[in-house]
Amino acid sequence: MHSAAAPGMAAQGPGRPRRPLMAEPFTVPWRDTGIPAPEDGVITGRLHDPAVHCGHSASFSPLQAARCLEAARGGDAAAQYMLGLMCCCGQGAAQNFSEALKWLRLAALQGYTAAEYRLGLLYYSGKGTPGRGGADDEAEAAAWIIRAAGKGLPEAENCAGNLFFMGRGVERDYAGALSWYRRVAGHGCAEAANSLAVMHLRGQGVPADCKHAVKWLMKAASMGHSGAEFNMGTAYLSGKGEEHDPAKAAEWFRKAALHGIAEAQYNLACLCLDGTGTMKDFPEALGWMRSAALQGLSEAENGLGAMYEEGCGVMPDTAEARKWYLRAADQGDDDAEYNLGALHERENAGGQGQEQALSWYRKAAGHGCRAAEERLALLS
Fold it and tell me: What is the model's pTM?
């Protein structure tokens, strides 16, 4: 992150806040509810929390719920599945994950495909399960999800690809992940198309091929997949798989930003600051930077602090700048740590201010910030 400064902002000593580079091409750290992010940060589809994504939104009267319970007790698989969802989501019945597991399992054992998939998700979440999400539950989850995927359920096919990609409940197998992703992408699954794009870019299970990656990206982005929209922006900005075209990059970042992707909001703010691929517009840059910062993106928190310190699109406000720098520094952002050091150095030359500046520079240098190393060498 420190080999260069962001466009238009050279790394300097006190008096000029630094901004980090834009996110590396083709990476967006998802903040999802159901599964940890892959170790390498690749955008893949997600395994959803079954309590949130229960699959139905209808309200049930007490009479309807009673009839569903009666049918479920009589062995009706569809009723058992619906009762499992009701217990999972707390709609029509009290939320009870153990009961949800019981009814979904009964339906799944009768071969009810949707129940197999939902049962797999419930095992993966560890809610109401014997192993509470441990290795045994992951293996059980994988078995049920793969069973449903084998019957052609698109959601299960995509989840099966995710399981093989990450090695959760099964051995990590990129070839297996590719097989499931290709299958479900053919059914129009945008998440699978995006996952295929990233795997082709990185050479995971296939030879690295940027051009082929962009074809899958375009397919996913055309279906409104926000991660793919961001990825198309980075493809045009970096020139990987597409010609370098900042204007097209800005267009794709804007689409992803409107869909709430913090990294796209941040990148679009940087482009608006510099007039790269779009009109230079400080107020718009401030708006996007704030949106990303409010989502907790440390680069944006630091960038917003820099805009307040410089008075870029807003009246200068050192207190507000410090607040955002501190938020970013709390996440270990070395640029923010450097900026806090520079702020203390400018405000309080000598004495305690100097010691505080040195303290922040040491933290930043410890995280690899070369500019902080240079300030330490000059001040020592």
Answer: 0.78
3-state SS, residue 372? helix
Q: CA-CA distance, 88 to 108, in Å (whole number)?
A: 15
The DSSP code sequence of 78-117 is: HHHHHHHHHHHHTSSS---HHHHHHHHHHHHHTT-HHHHH
Cβ distance 268 to 253 under 8 Å? yes
If you write DSSP's letter for every residue of 292-355 in order, what string do you get? HHHTT-HHHHHHHHHHHHHTSSS---HHHHHHHHHHHHHTT-HHHHHHHHHHHHHHS-SHHHHH
Orientation angle between helical segments 226-238 and 210-222, nearest 10 degrees: 140
* Cα–Cα distance, 31 to 89 (Å, whole number): 22
Helix (H) or strand (E) holding 51: none
pLDDT tens readout for residues 94-128: 899 999 999 999 999 999 999 999 999 999 989 98
Q: What are phi and psi of 139, to 5 degrees?
A: -65, -40
pLDDT in tens, 265-308: 999 999 999 899 999 999 999 999 999 999 999 999 999 999 99
